[in-house]
Amino acid sequence: xxxxxxxxxxxxxxxxxxxxxxxxxxxxxxxxxxxxxxxxxxxxxxxxxxxxxxxxxxxxxxxxxxxxxxxxxxxxxxxxxxxxxxxxxxxxxxxxxxxxxxxxxxxxxxxxxxxxxxxxxxxxxxxxxxxxxxxxxxxxxxxxxxxxxxxxxxxxxxxxxxxxxxxxxxxxxxxxxxxxxxxxxxxxxxxxxxxxxxxxxxxxxxxxxxxxxxxxxxxxxxxxxxxxxxxxxxxxxxxxxxxxxxxxxxxxxxxxxxxxxxxxxxxxxxxxxxxxxxxxxxxxxxxxxxxxxxxxxxxxxxxxxxxxxxxxxxxxxxxxxxxxxxxxxxxxxxxxxxxxxxxxxxxxxxxxxxxxxxxxxxxxxxxxxxxxxxxxxxxxxxxxxxxxxxxxxxxxxxxxxx
Length: 402
Hints:
- 26% of the residues are buried.
- This protein is 77% helix and 5% strand.
- It is built from 16 helices and 3 strands.
């Protein structure tokens, strides 16, 4: 692995450079050996590299990570040591990114590091929340149980995401088909009718005239319209990559009609389950909250949790700060208050997570049942509007004696 460093040499001059070493500790030892006092040392990541591109294209699937956790738990339960277990799993991995990450984890383990710390060096593959949970399991001697809990949690999360994607697949495909059909009619069919009617000098109905004008405009300025759409799409994409854009996008997702509530329930369920797992493992809330915020997939909810964390540090507890933000639904706030009063916060949080997951699944099923006829009706209305405008134009031809 290549590291870049900033250090002082024997003459107290600042020097910069790169070197290859197996681990960060090995790189530090090499620099000490040549008489350099290290100021800063980190992995060298070029602006563009084939490894970086491959990592982004072949990111491990959640199902692969879940399988890894389950198999590792089984191997550890059978008495195999961690390093040997990881070596066995690495040989079976088909994903190159996961295989490479495990090889670096094995090197770290042989250098004396713990499993949680070694996995934590790869946050794009192994979530920091789960790594912290594993650290608790390592200290308490229940690493196998923790790994199974993580796999169960991830599996529930994957199922929830699949349900949401399943609900969106049909309307997206239907919308694309509708756009293609309307585009064909507007670009190829309507202009022909427009030329015919204009050659006959017929006064067209308003609807037909508007559609034909739109078709002519699309033919005349289609390239410019396409260019404008591309520019707008690229600008929007660039904006939502910024922190402010990501926050507004995530906030918009939560406020969407119908789907917004499903997304909110899913995010809150994930937060409650993460808090329950970490709190049940024995971590204090002051340490649990930053990990939950870091693992939260929605910036709007992460910002709300950050406000709760700050108020909690001031001594306001957990439920009281939640009442200040409408993102935290009443049942969640009430159950958290009960958990604080009874000392069973982990139990009440897992109950909230299950309730919200069940409610989200019910809403998704209702959405699927509603979306299919709704999209069929919308397509029918669009096609009927175009057909009626053309037939009304034909009737106007007959009315004028053609």
